[in-house]
Amino acid sequence: MQTAISIPDLRRIRTQLKGTFGLVPTMGALHDGHLSLIPRALAECDHVGVSIFVNPTQFGPNEDFERYPRDLARDLKLLEPLGVDVVWTPTPESLYPAGFQTWVTVEETSRPLEGEHRPGHFRGVATVVAKLFNAVGPDRAYFGQKDAQQVAVIKRMVRDLNFPVEIVVCPTKRESDGLAMSSRNVYLNQAERQCATVLFRALSAAKKIYDQGERNGVRLREAMLMTIAHEPLARVEYVSAADPDSLGELDKVEDRVLLSLAVRIGRTRLIDNFLLSQ
Ligand code: PAF
Question: Which residues are known catalytic residues?
């Protein structure tokens, strides 16, 4: 496993790796959700690279950029046995040189849900992912379904800017009690960790009535809200039953629906989603 910090070093390694290349972009603090992307990428590509970069531009001024978990030595140790060809750990100065002023904005898809509650978040995500794609030149890039809106934003950017990259979306990895794996789960104390299953329970409640034939968007959203209302530690930011591509809220589900929600448990903000089809 080779490692690179500078863009020239990354490019030198990358040009030596012939055949198809899969990129797994991450912010480090790797968990089984990230690690599950790697066998998939290795199965589908001749070579695989992982980027680790805590991207400052996707954090709002009152968000957790400073305290976001960072442990590069641990991340490298986890990646080493998996067969990854290269790990790229760019510096903030190389990705955002002095005077930086060029941004990628995916307008409509970035607006609702996370975009409404985290202004500027997807501008930061789209910009850094465009820069990672430019530097690496992958054939495929691997993302988790857990960040459903991020996936929708990146897919739109790839189409709109003609990036020759296939976006591969992999299933959300969960703990045994249903909690979606996230680097932010380490912020939860014991009581909060117990409460955090409320996201999975709320989604499951909506899925249950969906499986029984409910197609009314209001009722699906209500099912999630009612579950969260029973948890004193949980503060809901949004619940949504939306079209998976446009992310517009649905009155009536025709064929597919993205159920998603953001909930604060203490100081920690968690998101999760289920993608349901007929
Ligand atoms: O999902 C993440 O970890 C980040 O948003 C990403 C895609 C690596 C961009 O910083």
Answer: 34
